[in-house]
Design goal:
single chain; alpha+beta; Serine Threonine Protein Phosphatase 5, Tetratricopeptide repeat; Immunoglobulin-like; four-stranded antiparallel β-sheet; 13 helices; 31% helix; 10% strand; globular; Sgt1-like; SGS domain-containing protein; SGS_dom; HSP20-like_chaperone; protein-folding chaperone binding
Length: 484
């Protein structure tokens, strides 16, 4: 397999939480490329397996590689690298370092220069202890990109000063929420605890890329009949046709649908357009010959070279079309019943047989938005999530509707061992803030929130207890009174 294939499979393994397999695949991918995305994926796998030194090495190398490439995606990867540093330092018990890295992630998301001397690491006292407090971290929203009251929820309450959108609002929110965990730990540490010391710098020294041990060459098989003859190397015979399991032969597929069409992308590298044959019928598509990485020896007449796509609904063959690029085959099929959302795109059956299993009937209720409109390149499940009943957790806590891959969430619990995006939601962070506040602080929060119509939030009862909190909409937003 190519480095790209190893990398894609490694990233997918991280997504599926198969961390040991992910590291093995990404090791192979990174032998020929310093892709920062692959480095960050391997860092996450090492982190989950508690290989924290290796995780930190990959994260810092990813930061430098992304900065040196200077591509359109570089800033996003640098933001992610600083956030990943924050998570790793938290796991190491270095909470001051964790907060510094989270703050740097926020500054990058705000569009600030990567090499700016922002002085974050200089917030220390004469003993070298970090002086930023939990309250300081909560109030640190001056440079928040976009959002404001229009963002909804508690995030919009105290956002009187918001910067223009940068496209990294989600990354900013995630780093901002992470600071609550780092500073929350920090406030309970003894004064002489090493976790209070700042030992990091904004731009870490670039680590040396670790080289994999070179494999010894396979022993050569020589012909002893004549020492002057060149050495002959034994070559393994290719596997016989039909010996590769169907699951390994199947192509990676992605799909999205509209009211009129179902589009399926089959990722086949270097498919030959002049040789490819695609036959649309009412409920299936037969195509081939297909290049398969698991069986590169296949020829046009082999069973492995052909596939039958058994569709999840009916199509109009004459209104369907296909196209080929160097990396994928795209099928754009006109639905026989416009407006009906398919519950699944279908399945691939190896071979060009017309006796493939019958296609499932299309669902008559609208499929979830994620399944209906997910763009090509994003992961989708074949089965519609609308068919899955909501389930609660074992403790009987409420389970709310969610599109998370991990299923329904219990928002009353905070799992510090996992930095899942759902648990980094800023509204969830404010809920935790209220939950951990004193009764007096809770009264102040409720009073300021209600009286200001959701535009202000204060935890200081001495400030808001004796006055009415005025409505303070963000700049550019006008507060209106509604007649009953």
């Amino acid at each position: 397999m190519s480095a790209t294939t190893f990398g894609q499979k490694g990233v997918e393994a991280v997504r599926n939480k198969d961390y040991a397999a992910a590291i093995s695949l990404l090791d192979k991918a990174l032998e020929s490329s310093d892709s920062p995305a692959w480095l960050l994926a391997r860092a996450q796998a090492h982190q989950q397996l508690k290989n924290l030194d290796a995780a930190l090495h990959d994260t810092e190398l990813a930061y430098h590689t992304a900065a040196e490439r200077g591509s359109g995606n570089s800033r996003k990867l640098m933001i992610e690298a600083q956030y990943r540093r924050a998570v790793i330092y938290f796991r190491l018990g270095r909470y001051a370092d964790s907060d510094c890295c989270a703050k740097w992630s926020m500054l990058l998301a705000e569009g600030r220069p990567a090499r700016e001397d922002d002085g974050v690491e200089k917030n220390v006292d004469q003993d070298g202890n970090y002086t930023v407090t939990y309250v300081d971290g909560i109030a640190d929203k001056k440079g928040q990109p976009g959002g404001g009251a229009a963002a909804g929820g508690l995030l919009g309450m105290a956002s009187a000063n918001t910067a223009p959108k940068t496209g990294f609002e989600t990354e900013w929110n995630k780093a901002y929420a992470w600071r609550s965990q780092a500073l929350g730990k920090l406030k309970d540490l003894p004064a002489d605890h090493p976790g209070r010391k700042v030992t990091v710098v904004k731009i870490p020294p670039k680590p040396i890329k670790k080289k994999a041990e070179a494999k010894k060459p396979d022993p050569e098989v020589a012909d002893s009949s004549d020492e002057d003859e060149p050495v002959k190397v034994a070559k393994p015979a290719p596997p016989a046709p039909g010996s590769v399991p169907d699951e390994k032969l199947k192509l990676r597929a992605d799909f999205y649908q509209s009211n009129q069409t179902m589009t399926v992308s089959l990722f086949a590298k270097d498919a030959k357009k002049d040789m490819l044959r695609v036959e649309f019928s009412e409920d299936k598509v037969i195509l081939g010959p297909l290049p398969r990485e698991a069986a590169p020896y296949v020829e046009a007449g082999d069973r492995e070279a052909m596939s039958t796509i058994v569709l999840g609904g009916k199509i109009v063959p004459k209104g369907s079309r296909w196209s080929v690029t160097p990396r994928k085959i795209e099928l754009v099929m006109q639905k026989a019943a416009p407006g009906v959302k398919w519950g699944r795109w279908g399945e691939e059956v190896i071979g060009g047989s017309t006796t493939a299993p019958a296609a499932a009937e299309p669902v008559t209720t609208p499929a979830p938005m994620a399944a209906a409109t997910a763009p090509a390149g994003k992961e989708n499940n074949n089965a519609s999530t609308s068919a899955k009943p909501a389930v609660g957790n074992s403790a009987g806590a409420p389970a709310y509707p969610t599109s998370s891959k991990t299923g329904p969430k219990d928002w009353d619990k905070l799992d510090e061992a996992d930095d899942d995006d759902d648990k980094q939601d800023v509204n969830f962070f404010f809920k935790q803030l209220y939950k951990g506040a004193t009764p007096e602080q809770q009264r102040a929060m409720m009073k300021s929130f209600i009286e200001s119509n959701g535009t202000a939030l204060s935890t200081d009862w001495n400030d808001v207890g004796s006055r009415k909190v005025e409505t303070m909409p963000p700049e550019g937003v006008e507060a209106k009174k509604w007649d009953k």
